[in-house]
Design a protein that fits this description.
The chain is an alpha+beta fold and about 800 residues long. About 20% of the residues lie in helices and about 30% in strands. The protein is built from 13 helices and 51 strands. It has a nine-stranded antiparallel β-sheet with strand order 5-6-7-8-9-10-17-16-12, with no helix packed on it. It has a nine-stranded parallel β-sheet with strand order 31-30-28-25-21-20-19-33-32. An eight-stranded antiparallel β-sheet has the order 1-2-3-4-18-15-14-11. It is globular.
């Protein structure tokens, strides 16, 4: 007898009607007649977790992404039962749970729909692996825009795109290619000037469809695990991002040198080549803080070893580099060579630390050393062991940073270029297959590396960089965007990726300046360095297979351009450090796409090229060859052209000239931009004076901040920092600068040089803390409109003649 049973049990399944409801403090459970449970957890008035179970059963609640330090608590929580729905009311939103089908609609307190289920939660049973394929679909009103999702090399606005999250080694990837190295399942939706966010905390392979399959529906789904997502309400986009970053974790401050310029290549060896490169930077007076050693520094590519032919005395070399101002950063990959005479391999084998296949044998794969086994970084014992391996590198030799690569994990000569699905992982006591652990493998490696560097480098701050990452990786590591290409298209991609990573909670990101694969022209390298110095992580890196890529490779003109912009980055270090402090304290993105800067301006919703560096500097990279300028959009408000000091009204497109030595930059009116003197490396000079560039604004008060500390170490956590807030008020015949200082750190400098830009009057009198001071005593320079004042003034009045 033939039946249609198979057809009946395959396909989508949906929740039935609600039959019971219960509440336990911040958790509200709704159970349906067919055994679906929806658990709603109120973390904050604007942060709500939605978690679904089928068959009346939740999995063990565990996530690598969620930070224990995230803010919790709410001021209002009320649950009201109506005829057709339950309402959960917080201080920020009203959640409507429909009794008939468990669908959800979220309103703001004015009754505007923020987010509404289409089909809502549904699932199908996974006959291949067990468990469920879990799905969610939301209504997408016409005009809604979507942003986020990490390092995707596509238009900033994801409307019309379908995205896959499966950390993948994509050498020489192209525009719109997906997936790439990172899995950040967090997106921001915006409709009618109101923004919200959704973080789908599921480490299986996940997918997002932004009106691609159905023009009025946005969907996300996973090939396993639970439907477990967090909803964040703004309505400001920046608030959505800061709440997400708070949930998944904010970073520590890096050492200031990590924000300098870094030089890397596959590979610098032997020692004489390393010294040749570092000496050339100093000879040409191009500032540089870090030199990187790729896999060739190792003995046969074995991690935690040195090739004694190339580097006979690494401790001496690292010390000599340090004396010349260089921090040494070395690469460490996850593949451990199968070699009975190799001590790292021996220790891992003795303790059973390598990943295994389903039937017991170790996961074997080919990477740079040849046949390798791979540590299970999801096992806390393995992470502890791995951290201990850094003792020699950090404590004895003096290496200052570690670069984790190939940690998607990447494996050569196998289908999919990674571990097979059947590989088993500890998952911190929640045993699982690689299907669940794949996307978090790189983050857990970076975490173990971070813990090792912090242990043996203390009291200095650790510096880690990773290629692969999952949400929450920002707690441990910086990142770069992987193996890009020396093309103009990739310059555009690098710009987009850095902006998107900032939107996705991972601001400390940059690209391989100049491109990793192939070889750039001098013009392309010059334009890339102009962009790269405005990315939080700034490093030139290339494959040696395609020629040299140091700045002097391209001739005198490019040397001069490189020097000019790297020097500018070093001058702006106090501004950049303050940006990072805001990111570490509040989760504020360091780069702001124009839509993030001003979401109320519809002109910004599809802009990709321009971005705001910090809060007050607009960067407009030139991204085409042979360009003598470019058309660009200046956000609403008033700005100054950084180079010409010309006053510019925003809210419109305009053409700006930009020869090869110029990237269009604009500074927001009312801004006070701090600068240090040019240094060849962080710490080369004693900072004897802080320069403040003050951009005149008529009218409302504008606040600028400068954060400083010892530039390394953890004293800042005990209050030994200096946070200066400057409030600027401009009048027709007077400006007022009020300063408020927090923290106990005492800066080296005693004075500030204030340069007044755009001042509409001639200075006649200066008053400091209610006392008129003669202009000659303040070294007043009428040509550049500058004065030198004591650093701890409370109120400064500059008055017209």
């Amino acid at each position: 007898m033939i039946t249609n049973t198979e057809l009946e049990i395959k396909g989508n399944l949906f929740p039935g009607k609600i039959i019971s409801f219960s509440q336990n403090v911040d958790k509200i459970n709704f159970t349906t007649e067919n055994g679906v449970i929806l658990q709603v957890t109120i973390l904050r008035g604007s942060v709500i977790r939605f978690r679904y179970a089928t068959d009346n059963n939740f999995e063990k609640d565990f996530s690598y992404a969620i930070s224990e330090d995230g803010a919790r608590g709410y001021s209002k929580l009320e649950v009201v039962e109506k005829d057709k729905e339950y309402q959960i009311i917080t201080s920020r939103v009203v959640v409507h749970i429909h009794k008939l089908d468990l669908k959800i609609t979220i309103h703001d307190l004015e009754g505007n729909i923020i987010c509404k289920d289409d089909w809502g939660f549904h699932w199908e049973q996974s006959y291949e692996y067990g468990g469920n394929i879990v799905k969610m679909s939301k209504s997408a009103p016409q005009g809604e825009c979507y942003y986020g999702l990490g390092d995707k090399p596509m238009h900033l606005n994801l409307k019309g795109k379908r995205i896959e999250n499966w950390a993948t080694d994509q050498y020489a990837f192209g525009k719109d290619q997906d997936p790439l190295y990172k899995s950040v399942p967090f997106y921001i939706g915006m409709y009618e000037e109101r923004a919200y966010g959704i973080f789908f905390d599921n480490s299986f392979k996940t997918f997002f469809d932004f009106c691609n399959e159905r023009r009025n529906v946005t969907s996300f789904w996973a090939h396993g695990g639970e439907m477990n997502y967090y909803f964040f309400y703004g309505p400001n986009m920046q608030d959505v991002i800061t709440r997400y970053t708070d949930l998944t974790g904010k970073p520590e401050l890096p050492p200031l040198w990590a924000l300098g310029y870094h030089q890397c290549k596959w590979s610098y060896y032997p020692e004489s080549k390393v010294k040749e490169v570092t000496t050339k930077f100093r000879d040409l007076k191009i500032p540089c803080d870090a030199i990187y050693l790729d896999i060739d520094y190792m003995e046969g590519f074995r991690c935690f070893t040195w090739n004694k032919e190339y580097f006979p005395d690494p401790k001496r070399m690292v010390q000599e580099l340090a004396e010349d101002g260089y921090k040494t950063v070395v690469i460490i990959d996850p593949g451990i060579k199968i070699d009975d005479d190799y001590w790292v391999y021996q220790e891992a084998m003795e303790n059973d630390y390598f990943c295994k296949r389903a039937d017991g044998p170790y996961m074997r794969g080919k990477v740079w050393p040849g046949e390798c086994f791979f540590p299970d970084f999801t096992n806390p014992e393995v992470r502890e062991w791995w951290a201990g391996l850094f003792k020699e590198l950090i404590d004895e030799i003096g290496v200052k940073g570690v670069w984790n690569d190939m940690n998607e994990p990447a494996v050569m000569e196998v289908p999919g270029k990674t571990f097979p699905d059947d590989v088993r992982h500890n998952y911190d006591g929640n045993p699982c297959s690689h299907r669940k652990a794949h996307n978090i493998y790189g983050t857990q490696m970076a975490r173990a590396t971070y813990e090792g560097i912090k242990r043996f480098g203390y009291p200095k701050r650790p510096f880690v960089i990773t290629r692969s990452a999952y949400s929450g990786a920002q707690r441990y590591t910086s990142s770069w965007t992987g193996d890009n290409v020396a093309t103009w298209e990739h310059l555009w991609i690098a710009n987009i990726q850095a902006q998107r990573m900032s939107m996705s909670g991972m601001s400390f990101t940059g690209s391989d300046i100049g491109g990793f694969a192939e070889h750039p022209t001098g013009e392309l390298y010059a334009r890339w360095i102009q962009l790269g110095v405005f990315h939080p992580f700034c490093r030139t890196h290339s494959s040696g297979d395609h020629g040299n890529q140091e700045p002097w490779t391209f001739g005198e003109e490019v040397i001069d351009v490189t020097r000019k912009y790297v020097e500018l980055r070093y001058q702006l270090l106090p501004y950049l450090y303050t940006m990072f402090w805001e990111y570490a304290e509040e989760g504020i993105p360091m780069l702001k796409s124009l839509v993030l800067y001003d979401q109320l301006d519809p002109q910004t919703h599809y802009r990709t090229d321009e971005f705001v560096f910090g809060n007050q500097i607009l960067v407009c990279p030139v991204q085409e060859p042979n360009a003598k300028g470019r058309r660009l959009y200046i956000p609403r408000g008033n700005w100054y052209n950084y180079w010409t000091r010309e006053y510019v009204k925003g809210g419109m497109e305009q053409w700006v000239d930009a020869d090869l030595d110029t990237i269009p930059l604009f500074v927001k009116e009312g801004a006070i931009i701090p600068k240090y003197p040019i240094q060849q490396y962080v710490g080369e000079k004693k900072i004897e004076e802080l320069k403040l560039e003050v951009y005149y604004k008529l009218g409302n008060k504008e606040v600028s901040k400068v954060y400083e500390d010892a530039q390394d170490g953890y004293d800042y956590a005990k209050g030994r920092f200096s946070l200066r807030s400057f409030a600027f008020t401009g009048k027709e015949n007077e400006i007022i600068i009020q300063q408020h200082k927090n923290g106990t750190y005492i800066t080296e400098y005693e004075s500030m040089k204030i340069e007044l830009i755009g001042l509409p009057f001639t200075v006649g009198e200066i008053e400091i803390d209610n006392v008129v001071v003669p202009l000659k005593d303040l070294k007043f320079n009428s040509k550049e409109n500058s004065v030198v004042v004591p650093k701890n003034f409370a109120e400064l009045h500059i008055i017209a003649k």
